[in-house]
Amino acid sequence: MSVAEAYDTPAARTPLVPPSPPRAPDNMTVFGRMKAIRISPIGSWGQRAYEEDIVQGRFFGRSTFILNAPDAIKHVLVDNYENYTRTPAGLRVLRPILGEGLLIAEGRAWKYQRRTLAPAFTPRAVMTLIPHMVAATDETVAKLRAASNASVDLREAMQRMTLEIAGRTMFSFGMDRHGAALRDFVMEYGERLARPHFLDMLLPLSWPSPQDISRARFRKRWTAFVGMLMAERRAAGKNEGAPAHDLFDLMGEARDPETGEAFTDDQLGDQVATMILAGHETTATALFWALYLLALDSAVQQDVAKEVQGAIVNGTLDIERLKFTRAVIDETMRLYPPAFLIARAASGPDTIAGLPVKKKDVILIAPWLLHRHEKLWRDPNAFIPSRFMAGTPPDRFAYLPFGVGARVCIGAHFALVEATLALAKIIGAFHVDLVDKEPVIPIGVVTTQPDRSPMFAITSR
Q1: Is 436 assigned a ligand-binding role in the annotation?
Q2: C-alpha to C-alpha distances, 368 to 63, 235, 275, 391, 430, nearest whole angstrom
Q3: Which runs of consecutive H residues, i.e. helices, occur in 99-203?
Q4: Parallel, antiparallel, or unpaired for β 456-460 and 430-434?
Q5: Which residues bind heme (predicted)?
Q6: H-state helical runs in 297-376
Q7: Domains of the chain, residue spans
Q8: Which of 122, 183, 220, 453 could make an SS bond with 155 (beta carbons 3.0 to 4.6 A apart)?
Q9: What confidence tens digit (pLDDT) does each residue in 393-427 have?
Q10: Are strands 316-317 and 362-365 parallel, antiparallel or unpaired?
Q11: pTM of the model
Q12: How far apart are CA 88 and CA 96, in angstroms?
């Protein structure tokens, strides 16, 4: 059974189709496409990219392949993944803020980091961190209740909440003193340095672009800040002989199962930066989009609220009973995938779906396109959480909110537990509506972000 046949929409409801950016002309020039990419890559794709299995093109003298065929995606991300590495532009954008952490590392360095970190992100390990998630979410609900009947910026509230969760799960201390500085770092990088420039794409990685100089200055300040957080956590210590109780403990105690090696201080700093940034920013954005969709679709919002009421057992929210709430999160990440684009460069020649690929050719796998592809999904632009309640799950290479294969996001389970619990608690406590009805348009700047932060009206249930 195909993804498109795996669900039914209630006949009495017309599904919500949220606003999205206009599609680019298929015959856009290279310079027109470059200009569009600078604003948002999401707006640089034409209708063909939403209809065809593979779209071939040329960009600055190199062949490009946009892959929407699950078998072709499996070949690149699973069967022959070692032949495909991050593009120079991708490394330029991500390395200054993530260093050589798990998200960036390649080859043996990546395998070492993945083996070493894996025990810290098992479902059992995540269970020990749930009290941190619940405490921070309950505090956010209390603050929002104090502001009930007033206009609130839920995007900012979700950023503060997920940052607090990141701080507590990473270091066992809140982010009251450091949260503003950390948010400033994230905002500065996103606004000034995260968008690739023309020279970022044209120059070899060994030749610094003008933006690279600014990124290097940023990295010096950023790594000093992360080092300060680590020093503060170490100064706090932990009870002698006590088991690990946060991610910093788990990562500090982690050893490569093959060599017994621990992370160096610099390596640990890059992992801390990766986990805090990748964890809090992507989850905050996913929760914002979920709340935005539920504000637009009051019927689905009411379904979530009813499920939450029935999922409270002995005063505690039972995540195993939040099936529909989880489906809302899944559908939100289909429409607004945290990582909207996976770009890879071929290290050597290959063949994909019968097409010859040369060294340095660029392979694009865009969850934004894949999740809205007209061959893979029925009503691809509509918000229909029930499609994830069907007995047949989507093809694992047609739905990639956390990637797939060996490099699937190590924190996927952590993020899903956090997002499901947080959405349930917020919708269980409040009815959420929008103050204004102007459309919020997604843009791609590292993650799938809103072009503005709308104000919400919340009322206690």
Answers
A1: no
A2: 21, 43, 23, 24, 30
A3: 107-117, 123-146, 154-171, 179-192, 198-202
A4: antiparallel
A5: 409
A6: 298-310, 323-335, 367-370
A7: 3-460
A8: 453
A9: 889 999 999 999 888 888 999 999 999 999 999 99
A10: unpaired
A11: 0.89
A12: 13
